[in-house]
Amino acid sequence: MLDNNMSTLGIIFPNTYDKTMSELTSNRSIASLPFASRYRVIDFMLSNMVNAGISNVSIIVKRNYHSLLDHLGNGREWDLARKKGGLNIVPPFSRDDVQVYNGRVQGLTSILGFLRSQKEEYVVMSDAFYATTMDIQKLVETHVSTNAYMTCVYKRYKLSANALTIPQEKGDPYYSYELDGDRITGMQINPKTEDYLNLAMNITVMKRTDLIQAVSDAYVAGQTHFGRDVIMPKLATERILGYEVTDYVAVIDGVKEYFDENMKLLNEQNADALFGGNRVHTKIRDDNPTRYTDTAFAKNVMAADGCVIEGKVENCILFRGVHIKKGAVVRNCVLMQDTVVGEGAVLEYVITDKNVTVSPNQDLSGTNIFPALVPKGKTV
Amino acid sequence: MDKEIIAMLLAGGQGSRLYALTEKLAKPAVPFGGKYRIIDFPLSNCVNSGIDTVGVLTQYQPLVLNEYIGNGQPWDLDRLYGGVHVLPPYQKAAGSDWYKGTANAICQNISFIERYNPEYVIILSGDQICKQDYADFLRFHKEKNAEFSVAVMEVPWEEASRFGLMVADDNDRITEFQEKPKEPKSNLASMGIYIFNWDILKQYLLEDDADPNSENDFGNNIIPNLLRDNRRMYAYHFDGYWKDVGTISSLWEANMEILEPEKSGIDLFDENWKIYSRTAGYPGHQIFETGRVINSMITDGCHVKGTVDHSILFSGVYVEEGAEVRDAVVMGNTIIKKGAKVSHCIIAEGAVIEEDAVVGQMPTEENKGVATVASKVVVGKKAKVGPNAMVRENVKDGEEVC
Fold first, then answer.
1. What is the model's pTM?
2. Cβ–Cβ contacts within 10 Å for residue B82, how many?
């Protein structure tokens, strides 16, 4: 729990990098993407903040946010249904010149009034395109003890093929840091390298008053992007420190990466690394336990409650309420909530979105490189 | 704003016949069916039946139960007006008393009921597994213009003398009540679920309270008094799944019946009648390369590397490689280590079954006992717990307990 003198409020941007996920984010933000059998991606960062003692969290949503709002509700499941602070969801404010936020600066500008009226000393800002159970308390404590102007979190990471190939004009920019000791001395926008780099996780801690000042200045200057327009120009004059996250991080920056990061959790070390620490909170669905019948065969499976397994499942992530009927064979698949696989159907390397029905005896397969994707609600 | 009906849930029972499981918690708090506690059933029935005000009468070891119920949010019973309230015995200006009997527990809370000024009060029991629509029961009560109704189950005649029996005429009007009679005149067993008109209930509670010789019990005192006065009493027939889980074997049996909903009739997958519970919040369960699971229910947070056959694993149970779990009810966070064999038994929360230990045995003609291991007990390496054992203390390595 953070000390009183380190009181911190949280801000999450749930839409950053939406565009890297193709169909999976056509109806939702990247933050509300189902992940690891039971969660939405945002659950991780939200829980990290709450577990650090942050009880005032704003979510600045941009587009496709119905599923996210439905998921978050009033924040009760994260213990954020509060009189003081709690969950504050900020959709775009529609005026005559209707404009959706472009970049963090504009998003933050819309809550400047709110930020001014808060009492917390520090602000931690984060995206939600990764699942990690990193310790936010330690991050804030480090920031305070180093007396930095700003602390930015990075991960030693090799960019995915998807990130390398995605055209620059599509999607939000990503950054890498150049470091001298702890200090960030340079930043690259959309670096195209296949080597390890210090990938910016866009998790930033700074004083609330400094943030208000920086955002106001940038907005007046007509600037939009926090990384490019706020952090980069200040690198020379302010002490901006890098903070390497060494915890398990599942970076979700493409469909294949989404698939792989789910699959990696079938390995016990990875699952323990992600879930061994603080509890990750999520919306409760009140499903019954998962039922395996006498015809079930399951191996290397992660499954949430509410499933019925009558067929054969191998190397799969099953979300809540999945039903695999008799004689069906499902291998190397990620099946989202309430997917029904009919009798005798055979699935290999498939991602099904929510409420997909696979007809009996249907064969469906993708490959390790290109998992097949069945969109939400479809019957095949 | 008066309530038409409120529920009073008797949850003070010690459940002495479940001893190893109820040393530190009240019977309604005993875990059941993978992710539930017994009390989830009456609470969920209430909210699914449109009853939004429930008084829970606690007495014996209420800590776990109180914390579990909390503000009632998991059952949607956190209401501005009404909701769930835990009602322990309390001190009054003129002395204080434990709840002496079921009727006395209600009698001590007349002022709670009067806050809502209900027309009807339904009395529920916190130790049964049952999915029941109380709204249908109330409809019956109103149709019959009854003053008192009791839910009854038809039981086999040869077992009838184990129950409290209602003798009723063709119009379901009750003419006689027999408590565990040698020669039953009826096979309609009382389920211990009653609907009273509140004015009648209050009148009889006060009368009973004034009688120093009374046991202050619904079955032994209130119902006979109603009969004596020829009140309008009716028997409401219920033919769904119902189980009193008062003994180890009936608790084990009820858990096993969940595994075969088609046969037993207790379907937890019913979207229209969900059973709500406070969840542990674990990630999805995992079955690894060496894990084999058939005919079982597995809850979030379990790690299975051994064999699980015809069993229920509650949340966060670990079954290590080479371990075998058969016909077993294994409650939350228990660890079953390498090579251990666990069969036909109930293992309570947080127990550790060490390597190559044996707990219980598959039933034989002579011995159908259900072994029981209490919460947080460690059964040592190569130790053996016999089929009739009820283990409440750690078992040393290699030791045998019968």
1. 0.92
2. 18
Q: A79 φ, ψ to 5°?
A: 65, 30
For chain B, first and last CA: distance in Å? 59
Give the pair of three-digit tokens for residue B318.
């670990």
Helices assigned H by DSSP within chain A: 41-51, 66-72, 103-109, 112-117, 136-146, 161-165, 208-220, 232-234, 255-264, 268-275
Q: What single DSSP character describes residue B312?
A: E
Please state the rounded mean pLDDT for residues A112-125. 95
- Rounded Cα distance between B401 and A192, Å, is 67
- Output DSSP code: residue B210: T
Of A284, A288, A302, the CB nearest to B269: A288
Mean pLDDT, chain B, whole residue set = 93
Give the pLDDT score at A158. 86
Query: What is the 8-class DSSP label of residue B147?
Result: S
Q: Who's near A113: CB < 8 A, 6+ residues apart?
A: none
The C-alpha of B253 sits at a distance from chain A's nearest C-alpha, in angstroms, of 17
Q: Percent of chain A at pLDDT above 90?
A: 73
Residue corresponding to tokens 């579990």 = B68
DSSP labels for A8-47?
Answer: EEEEEETTTTGGGGGGGGSSS-GGG-EETTTEEHHHHHHH
pLDDT of residue A132: 95
- DSSP codes of every residue in A313-335: EEEEEE-TT-EE-TT-EEEEEEE
User: For residue B27, what is the DSSP state?
Assistant: G
Check A305 against B300: CB less than 8 A apart. yes
Contact (CB, 8 A) for B168 and B148: no
Q: Given B289, B295, B313, which is nearest A299 (Cβ)? A: B289
Q: State the Cα angle at A297 between B311 and B257, rounded to 5°.
A: 25
Q: Which residues contact A167 (CB under 8 A, 6 or more apart)?
A: none
CB-count exposure of residue B80 (10 Å: 0-12, 13-18, 19+):
exposed
Question: Which of A291, A313, A316, A337 would you mutate first to test chain B, the one with the most B CBs within 10 A?
Answer: A291
Beta-sheet strands, E only, within B16-138: 31-32, 36-37, 53-57, 83-87, 91-92, 95-96, 120-125, 128-130
Using left for φ > 0, alpha for ψ between -120 and 50, and beta otherwise, residue B108 falls in alpha
Instruction: Tell me the pLDDT tens digit for each residue of B230-260.
Output: 999 999 999 999 998 888 999 999 999 999 9
Do the chains contact at B297 and A289, CB–CB below 8 Å?
A: yes
Work out the burial of residue B115: count CB atoms within 10 Å of its CB; fewer than 13 is exposed, 13-18 middle, 19 or more buried.
middle
pLDDT for residue B116 is more than 90: yes
- Nearest-angstrom CA–CA distance, A44 and A131: 6
How far is the C-alpha of B144 from the C-alpha of B235, rounded, in Å? 10
Could you give the CA distance from residue B246 to residue B253 in angstroms, rounded to a whole number? 11
pLDDT digits (tens, 9 = 90+) for B15-63: 778 888 888 888 999 999 999 999 999 999 999 999 999 999 998 888 8
Helix (H) or strand (E) holding A93: none
> If you average pLDDT over residues B148-168, what whole number do you get?
93
- Per-residue confidence at B319, pLDDT binned at 50, 70, 90? very high
Q: What is the pLDDT of residues B368-388, one digit of tens each?
A: 899 999 999 999 999 999 999
Beta-strand runs (E) in A137-195: 150-158, 175-180, 183-189
Positive or negative, the Cα torsion across B133, B138, B144, B147?
Answer: positive
Please report residues of B whose CB lies closer than 8 A to that of A295.
Answer: 294
For residues B122 and B137, the answer to whether their CB atoms sit within 8 Å is yes
Closest partner CB to B293 (pick from A275, A298, A305): A298
Block residue for tokens 């990875």 = A270
The pairing of strands B307-309 and B292-294 is parallel
- Find chain B residues with C-beta within 8 A of A262's C-beta: none
- Chain A hits for B279, Cβ within 8 Å: 284, 286
